[in-house]
Specification:
Layout lengths: L2 H14 L3 E6 L4 E4 L1 H7 L20 H13 L4 E3 L5 E4 L5 E13 L2 E10 L1 H80 L1 H14 L8 H32 L8 E4 H12 L9 E7 L2 E4 L1 H17 L7 E7 L3 E7 L7 H4 L21 H11 L3 E7 L3 E9 L4
Parallel strand pairs: 8-10
Antiparallel strand pairs: 1-2, 1-6, 3-5, 4-5, 5-6, 7-9, 10-11, 11-13, 12-13
Helix pairs in contact: 5-6, 7-8, 8-10
Length: 413
């Protein structure tokens, strides 16, 4: 390509470039400007030639622009201008528009020139502004979505709490219903046991009284006096049996009404037990003996009436559930911290299954159905022991016997 062709090509590039191109000297005088640049600033093509480039610079930065131009002339090198800054240029009508500028030094015949490439970035700025506005709108939408999500989460949380509370309420209702059904079942079982006990324990002595009374009326002869005495004794025994049953009922009633309390006093425990043993021997079967051992202090601080009722019940049971010729063992150990009473027999014993229910009202062991009793005695004993803050321990084995040990802490007095 010839030099002429090169010049024509460069001239074509200069005239038809879409970028604005300005060539100015070291003091800012414009020597050459392309059509795109003149149009960009609203000037005719030759209006700017010979003018200072400051005419295209916003008034408020004239002083800074001159300083920057001088620095570039002193140290010329190709670079973008205003890197990271928003630059503005001034049109002929005084309006400002955003611009992007790149500078390149030019040395011609020893004189320094500056080639400036300018791009009107108004559209880009509008797009950026639009994008920024959209971004702000998106941020608002995102914030609104976050708030909505938080509100929804709160509503879900609140409803979950309500649901959980409803579930808990249902669970409580289910538990209460289950407990009510269990109580109903227990009451039905209690009712059944009471009816079974009452039908047996009341009917038997009443039948005995009726039959003995009928027979007594026929024994009028002197030689029949012994038979008459025998039936009178049977009637007395039956009446005493009924009296014991009614006493148990009365004790249960008083316990449930809170009318029975432990009245602690000082008394001789050994003398009381010996007295009880002597009385209970009258009810013993053939060749049954009560073997009594005592160790420790004789005077204790407990409720003698409750102790007496407990021992009478336990010794009475030991006699009833033991056969003839078997001993009943009563022992007591008193030390500084506690008093330990034990009643032991060699009778029929109690099964493991029955032991679980032994202190329930009207409950009687399966192997004791035909033996006189209300099923209230041990229930009453358990309550009396509780009143004195005692503890009961039962050991039993079928056909080998039963041991009931009661421990009372020594009370302060």
């Amino acid at each position: 390509m010839s030099d002429f062709e090169k010049i024509e090509l460069l001239d074509a590039l200069f005239k038809h470039a879409t970028e604005g191109i300005i060539i100015s000297d070291s003091i800012g005088i414009i020597h050459l400007i392309n059509p795109s640049c003149a149009k960009m600033f609203g000037y005719e093509l030759n209006e700017l030639v010979g003018k200072n480039i400051d005419i295209m610079v916003p008034d408020h930065i004239h002083h800074r622009h001159a300083s920057h131009r001088n620095q570039f002339i002193e140290s010329p090198h190709a670079r973008p201008m205003g890197l990271g800054l928003d630059l503005y240029a001034k049109r002929k009508d005084g309006s400002l528009f955003p611009i992007e500028i790149s500078l390149s030094p030019l040395l011609k015949e020893g004189e320094k020139f500056v080639i400036a490439f300018l791009i009107d970035i108004s559209v880009r700025k509008q797009i950026e502004a639009s994008v920024h506005e959209k971004q702000k709108e998106l941020e608002k939408v995102a914030a609104a979505l976050i708030r909505t999500n938080e509100e929804l989460e709160k509503k879900v949380s609140d409803r979950t709490k309500v649901l959980q509370e409803a579930i808990r309420e249902l669970e409580r209702s289910r538990t209460e219903l289950s407990q009510a059904l269990e109580k109903e079942k227990d009451l039905n079982d209690l009712k059944s046991r009471f009816i079974s006990m009452a039908s047996h324990e009341f009917r038997t002595p009443l039948t005995t009284i009726l039959s003995s009374a009928s027979l007594i009326s026929e024994y009028n002869k002197p030689e029949q006096e012994e038979k008459k005495t025998k039936h009178i004794h049977r009637i007395k025994s039956a009446v005493n049996n009924l009296n014991d049953i009614l006493s148990d009922f009365l004790s249960i009633s008083k316990l449930e009404e809170g009318k029975i309390h432990a009245d602690f006093i000082k008394f001789n425990l050994k003398d009381l037990i010996e007295e009880i043993n002597s009385d209970m021997l009258l009810n013993a079967k053939l060749n049954q003996k009560i073997v009594f051992t005592y160790s420790g202090a004789e005077v204790v601080y407990l409720d003698p009436k409750l102790i007496k009722n407990i021992l009478i019940n336990l010794i009475s049971n030991a006699i009833k559930f033991s056969t003839e010729n078997k001993n009943i063992y009563v022992s007591c150990i008193v030390n500084e911290s506690q008093s330990v009473l034990e009643v032991k027999d060699e009778g029929m014993g109690i099964s493991d299954d029955d032991q679980k229910h032994l202190f329930e009202r009207f409950y009687r062991g399966k192997n004791a159905f035909n033996i006189q009793g209300t099923g209230l005695g041990l229930h009453i004993v358990g309550n009396y022991i509780d009143l004195m803050k005692g503890h009961l321990h039962l050991r039993s084995k079928l056909n080998e016997g039963t041991s009931i040990q009661i421990t009372f802490p020594n009370q302060q007095h």
